Amino acid sequence: MPLTTLEKVYADANEKYYAIGQFNVNNLELAQAALQAAAELNSPIIMAASTNAIKYAGLETLTAIIRIAAESTSVPVILHLDHGTDLDDIKSCITAGFTSVMIDASHHPLDENIRLTREAADYAHAHNVTVEAELGRLGGIEDDVSVSEKDALLTDPDEAERFVEESKCDALAVAVGTSHGAYKFKGDAKIDFERIRTIKGRLGIPLVLHGASGVPQELTAKITQYGGSIPGAKGVPDDAYRTAVKCGINKINIDTDLRLAFTAALRQVLSEHPEAFDPRKLLGPARDAVKDIIKQKMKLFGSADRA
Ligand code: G3H
Ligand code: 13P
Ligand code: ZN
């Protein structure tokens, strides 16, 4: 079916307490992996392009790949801008055909974050596009961080209430202890679930968990086995997804895990088939590995069979 908007998908997830996965896509293989996973599990899917992905693949090309591929599936596919920085990003993506956007002005002071988000929301809503915004700073909660330092980084429920009211965003990305990339936690994973529950209780709107990759040990071990090196990598444990969803998270962003799955499979095939030089023989297994990890996430997030 044609690309769809997030509104109805969010409403269902918000009512029934499950999350839709956002999977970041940079090229043909990642796009195919994501769509195949969604089709096989009958799950809605959010396919996202970051501003760096757009620079890498080209806005028109990446949009065309996803739009045309989505047309041949029967599940809802949302094309979302990840971490848009300003109104120009939002406008160009909406013009290209994106059905959802994120404006990330979280590094600005609160008033400026509200102003920039409101500007993006007014434009996006006039084009029937949903807007995600971010409040707080993504980063790990270290043991030696004081309560006041922690509160300064993580999303404040009072500020969140004012932010959503004034900015008119449709969904809010919250800072609750996760961070982007493969090195999220030094010791045990620390995620402030109570904060999610409180914010959800106050706002009622869909909440988004960024920096949510699990960094599965079997993938990092495989990368190491075939010559890679990413010591100390650590991510969000599976049971944390279930708890986060119960507390009110409705969208979970995954990029790093796709990169890890892709790299592990690619390293394996390069190592085991030194004679191979057909890109399809190298990238095919990487695509399949990405599809598998996306399917695992969809089951964990509760979006399977919700299409
Ligand atoms: O939030 C960060 C995403 O993983 C996108 O990363 O800017 O390298 O495409 P990227
Ligand atoms: P990860 O780096 O944990 O995959 O997070 C991705 C993300 O938040 C994209 O917006
Ligand atoms: Zn993010």
Describe this structure in words.
It is a single chain. With 307 residues, the chain is α/β, with parallel strands linked by helices. The chain has a single domain (6-301), classed as TIM Barrel (Alpha-Beta Barrel). Helix content is 52%, strand content 14%. The protein has an eight-stranded parallel barrel with strand order 1-2-3-4-5-6-7-8, surrounded by ten helices. Strand 6, helix 9 (193-203) and strand 7 form a beta-alpha-beta unit. The model has no long low-confidence stretch (mean pLDDT 96). The chain binds glyceraldehyde-3-phosphate, 1,3-dihydroxyacetonephosphate and zinc ion. 1,3-dihydroxyacetonephosphate binds next to strand 3, strand 8 and helix 12.
Topology:
Layout: H1 7-16, E1 20-24, H2 28-41, E2 45-50, H3 51-57, H4 59-71, E3 77-84, H5 87-96, E4 100-103, H6 110-126, E5 130-135, H7 147-153, H8 157-167, E6 171-174, H9 193-203, E7 207-209, H10 217-225, H11 238-247, E8 249-254, H12 256-272, H13 279-301
Helix pairs in contact: 2-4, 2-13, 5-6, 6-8, 8-9, 9-11, 10-12, 12-13
This protein binds glyceraldehyde-3-phosphate, 1,3-dihydroxyacetonephosphate and zinc ion.
